[in-house]
Design goal:
This protein has 202 residues and is mainly α. The chain has eleven helices and no strands.
């Protein structure tokens, strides 16, 4: 295990144990430590800043309520992300999205350069991940809009892997799915992202 990750894991173990003994200050430290990461993951899944803020709060409320059930069989942040993702996916199932503009409209008539960059990216078979490879700010914005067109389970696995950098094993634990399912879902999601982006450069 990476020494920095090992240190984080050890620190979390101590903090969680203190939380389970009723130490509210320890819970406060965990919240401060992870609230930005949790918010970012939720926002990438639900695409609404106000809802993401509310779901982040709900995540930590649920964490406080369920902290006694944490047994350390996975890293604390994996357990925490499982709560966050489950809440986000349930939110997505309930929410009806209206008025999403087309990606073609996102790349306006004066942005042929952006269109060309997208075309060059899509022609590069070695660039397997649009979200990682699209470093240009405008390309990245369009790629994130494309991400919203994926179904919820595919979007969740892309966010955790390609944005949060979680391992396949961690994603498997967080989403409570088989390792093989993580890999196949990620592969399909990346291919779907390519197809979505391809539609605006032809």
């Amino acid at each position: 295990m990476d020494k920095q990750l090992e240190k984080i894991s050890i620190d979390d173990t101590v903090l969680v144990r203190q939380c389970q003994q009723g130490d509210s200050a320890a819970m406060g430290r965990l919240i401060v430590k992870y609230q930005d990461r949790v918010y970012n993951v939720i926002f990438k899944i639900c695409s609404n800043s106000d809802d993401a803020a509310e779901l982040t709060q709900d995540t930590f409320v649920k964490c406080i309520e369920k902290i006694d059930t944490f047994r350390g069989q996975s890293a604390f942040y994996t357990w925490l992300f499982r709560v966050a993702v489950n809440l986000s996916l349930n939110y997505c199932k309930r929410k009806v999205r209206l008025g999403m503009r087309s990606l073609d409209a996102a790349v306006g008539p004066g942005q042929d350069g952006v269109r060309g960059q997208l075309g060059a990216f899509l022609a590069d078979d070695s660039a397997v991940d649009p979200l990682v490879a699209a470093r240009d700010k405008e390309i990245g914005r369009i790629a994130m809009e494309a991400l919203l067109r994926l179904d919820d389970p595919q979007r969740a696995v892309v966010v955790l892997r390609d944005i949060e950098g979680m391992s396949y094993a961690e994603i498997s634990e967080a989403l409570e799915i088989e390792l093989g399912t993580v890999k196949s879902r990620l592969s399909r999601a990346r291919e779907n992202l390519r197809q979505i982006l391809q539609g605006i450069v032809v």
